[in-house]
Amino acid sequence: MSGQKTSNALRVAVAGLGSIGTKVATALDQGIEGLTLSAVAVRDPAKHRAFISGLRRPPQVLPIEQLGEAADIVVECAPSNHLRSIVEPAVKRGKAAVVVSVGGLLDNFDLVDLARANGGRIIVPTGALIGLDAVNAAAIGTIHSVQMVTRKPIDGLKGAPFIVQNNIDIDNLREPLKLFEGSAREAAKGFPANVNVAVALSLAGIGPDRTRIQVWADPTVTRNVHRIEVEADSARFSMGIENIPSENPKTGLITALSVIALLRKQRATLCVGT
Ligand SMILES: NC(=O)C1=CN([C@@H]2O[C@H](COP(=O)(O)OP(=O)(O)OC[C@H]3O[C@@H](n4cnc5c(N)ncnc54)[C@H](O)[C@@H]3O)[C@@H](O)[C@H]2O)C=CC1
Ligand SMILES: O=C([O-])CC(=O)C(=O)O
């Protein structure tokens, strides 16, 4: 079985073959130093059969709950409601889970304790954001405030619970509309597929209750735009990123690349950046 350890390569499993997971699986199959693609989980096997059989070394196809048995690192790339089923079996076996649906971590934070108790790890990539290295560093000292403004094209926000529950019509907007202002924790509830970045930023810095975010629906932009201001005792810094949407308009193309960069660091001889 390809899930069994045959060398000292770290076995990596990918949960969800959507916009992010397909690119991560492809990169692993093409070769990342010291890593091998051991398994994937998909919702609809028929839809992904051609992709999987087209890989150079087709991995096992397993239910999400079994990936933790077949890998040393499980990469979560599925909708956030599956986070627990993917991460729990991995970390309780002392394995690492790379979490992209980081907004979903806030309601499942006991998984961090579970990982700690069992020698597992939960790793959050920088994802669609920028500068979490600087935020991590500043957090060693004192960060006074972190403020973020997110602007997205209409297609990148459609269906968000906050918009549906408040009956907001964004389809006919002609100018930018501020939908939300509050904490990263509240934003993750209202926009679970849109503000993973704010939650990642908060976990790197001053936490989900003190990290402030505005979310704008903006018909004048074609990219997912994030601007961040950090005020700390070591530095003041501003960061911005304008993400080109992938085939999933909510997800920037850079997200999968961030996961691949993180995986490359697991066994790389030269590591640059924190
Ligand atoms: N941390 C970050 O910076 C970012 C995080 N994200 C988050 O990453 C996650 C994945 O995003 P995308 O790849 O764009 O989503 P996607 O919708 O393109 O792909 C998700 C995949 O999961 C599959 N799936 C659903 N249920 C499954 C199951 N039970 N077993 C196996 N597979 C299942 C779906 O069929 C789909 O192929 C989302 O939660 C998204 O919000 C997205 C962008 C940035
Ligand atoms: O900017 C992006 O591409 C994705 C994003 O905001 C998120 O998931 O938090």
From TrEMBL:
Which Pfam families would you find in this protein's record? Asp_DH_C, NAD_binding_3
Q: According to its UniProt record, which residues of this chain constitute the active site?
A: H226
State the SUPFAM superfamilies in the record.
Answer: Glyceraldehyde-3-phosphate dehydrogenase-like, C-terminal domain, NAD(P)-binding Rossmann-fold domains
Sequence ranges assigned to domain Aspartate/homoserine dehydrogenase NAD-binding in this UniProt record: 16-125
Against InterPro entries, the record matches this protein to:
Asp/hSer_DH_NAD-bd, Asp_DH, Asp_DH_prok, L-Asp_DH, NAD(P)-bd_dom_sf
Please name the GO terms of the biological process aspect recorded for this protein, alphabetically. NAD+ biosynthetic process
Instruction: Reply yes or no: does the keyword NAD apply.
Output: yes
Family named by the database record: Belongs to the L-aspartate dehydrogenase family.
Q: Which HAMAP family match?
A: NadX
NCBIfam families with a match to the protein in the record: PRK13302.1 (NF009825), PRK13303.1-3 (NF009828)
Q: What is this protein called?
A: L-aspartate dehydrogenase
**Lineage, please?**
Bacteria, Pseudomonadati, Pseudomonadota, Alphaproteobacteria, Hyphomicrobiales
